[in-house]
């Protein structure tokens, strides 16, 4: 059992932005030291606001938080010494070389002389940037820039590293390389990593524990396997010929959950999600029940539970829908 104090502890963080936007509505997080903790949620869920508060860049309206044992409101300077931050936007100077960027960052943290040079060389090597070290950053690929950003966040050997959407905007190859890099970092010298992501796959792959954020709160937290394990059996998804109305929905879900081996059924618009012991074996009975109810089925698929199903269960909507809903809001200029 891990008896060390939490690396990050936030209690009931509330943050409201002008225009009555509640970004955080009582956020609680506890991150044990030495693990990769994933804050997973769609755009606008409140992940960046949480990171800003924990990294002392914003103040909560109420609530408390400690990072590496220091109170973010009372001792922001101590927190800043103990953390590394890799923000969504690169902090590197594009005109300076990779080496110069690292040297400047090191100096800001009080390193100098051979200690600084040694640390810079080590990081350039570590992030496979040694060959590009003398080239201006503006000529780097997206993946190289991101690796430099992470190296910059590590110059002063922080206890806690914040990675805000580390792979957003990277092509699939660079994303996989970054995942491998983060995986390697995780095993190192007790470093704690808090990463935010809106990629289900990223959280599943990297994080030892995941907290799902929806509308400014944690809706569920646990290991990826435990979260998926909550959902017994297979997920069966049925696409309907036409949407089902409110009244029909209750009748249908009642009829489907009465079938043997079916644990739950959720109907939203044209889609029915069913959880069943043996998905493939249950499909014929599901189709027959829907046929009896006069509902036409366009397609049926069987899958192992994914984090998307966990999100649906706890947030009450599909992950992709939550993302689209936010995009609509953004397109409307509300943000
Ligand atoms: N400076 C601001 N002024 C007004 N509203 C804001 C501001 N920053 C964030 N918000 C709003 O607060 C909510 C939470 O935003 P936040 O950026 O924390 O979410 P997020 O989960 O990090 O999303 P993203 O992945 O897009 O960064 C959203 O509704 C957002 O529009």
UniProtKB/TrEMBL annotation:
Predominant location category: membrane
UniProt membrane topology term: Peripheral membrane protein
Any one of the GO CC terms: plasma membrane
Organism of this sequence: Streptomyces fodineus
Residue stretches making up the ABC transporter domain: 8-240
EC number: 7.6.2.2
Name by which UniProt lists this protein: ABC-type xenobiotic transporter
Any one Pfam family match given in the protein's UniProt record, by short name: ABC_tran
Keywords from the named record: Antibiotic resistance, ATP-binding, Cell membrane, Membrane, Nucleotide-binding, Translocase, Transport
Classification via NCBIfam families: drrA
InterPro entries tied to this protein: AAA+_ATPase, ABC_transporter-like_ATP-bd, ABC_transporter-like_CS, DrrA, DrrA1/2-like_C, P-loop_NTPase
GO biological process, one term: daunorubicin transport
Location within or outside the cell: Cell membrane
Source taxon at top rank: Bacteria
Protein family (similarity comment): Belongs to the ABC transporter superfamily. Drug exporter-1 (DrugE1) (TC 3.A.1.105) family.
UniProt keyword Mitochondrion, yes or no: no
One GO molecular-function entry: ATP hydrolysis activity
């Amino acid at each position: 059992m891990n008896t060390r104090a939490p690396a990050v502890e936030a209690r009931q963080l509330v943050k409201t932005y002008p225009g009555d936007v509640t970004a955080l509505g009582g956020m609680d997080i506890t991150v044990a030291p030495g693990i990769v903790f994933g804050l997973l949620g769609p755009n606008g869920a409140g992940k960046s606001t949480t990171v800003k508060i924990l990294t002392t860049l914003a103040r909560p309206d109420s609530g408390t938080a400690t990072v590496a044992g220091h109170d973010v409101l009372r001792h922001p300077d101590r927190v800043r010494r103990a953390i590394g931050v890799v923000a969504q936007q690169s902090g590197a100077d594009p005109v300076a070389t990779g080496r110069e960027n690292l040297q400047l960052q090191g100096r800001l943290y009080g390193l100098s002389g051979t200690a600084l040079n040694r640390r810079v060389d080590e990081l350039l090597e570590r992030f496979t940037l040694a060959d590009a070290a003398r080239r201006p950053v503006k000529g780097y690929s997206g993946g190289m820039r991101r690796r430099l950003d992470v190296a910059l966040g590590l110059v002063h050997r922080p206890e806690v590293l914040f990675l805000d959407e580390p792979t957003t905007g990277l092509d699939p190859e660079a994303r996989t390389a970054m995942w491998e890099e983060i995986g390697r970092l995780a095993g190192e010298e007790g470093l704690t990593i808090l990463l935010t992501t809106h990629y289900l796959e990223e959280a599943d792959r990297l994080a030892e524990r995941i907290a799902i954020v929806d509308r400014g709160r944690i809706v569920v937290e646990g290991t990826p396997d435990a979260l998926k394990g909550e959902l017994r059996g297979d997920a069966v998804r049925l696409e309907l010929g036409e949407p089902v109305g409110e009244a029909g929905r209750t009748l249908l879900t009642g009829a489907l959950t009465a079938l043997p081996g079916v644990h739950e059924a959720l109907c939203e618009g044209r889609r029915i999600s069913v959880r069943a012991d043996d998905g493939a074996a249950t499909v014929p009975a599901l189709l027959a029940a829907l046929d009896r109810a006069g509902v036409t089925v366009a397609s049926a698929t069987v899958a192992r539970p994914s984090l998307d199903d966990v999100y649906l269960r706890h947030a009450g909507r599909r992950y992709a829908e939550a993302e689209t809903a936010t995009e609509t809001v953004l397109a409307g200029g509300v943000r």
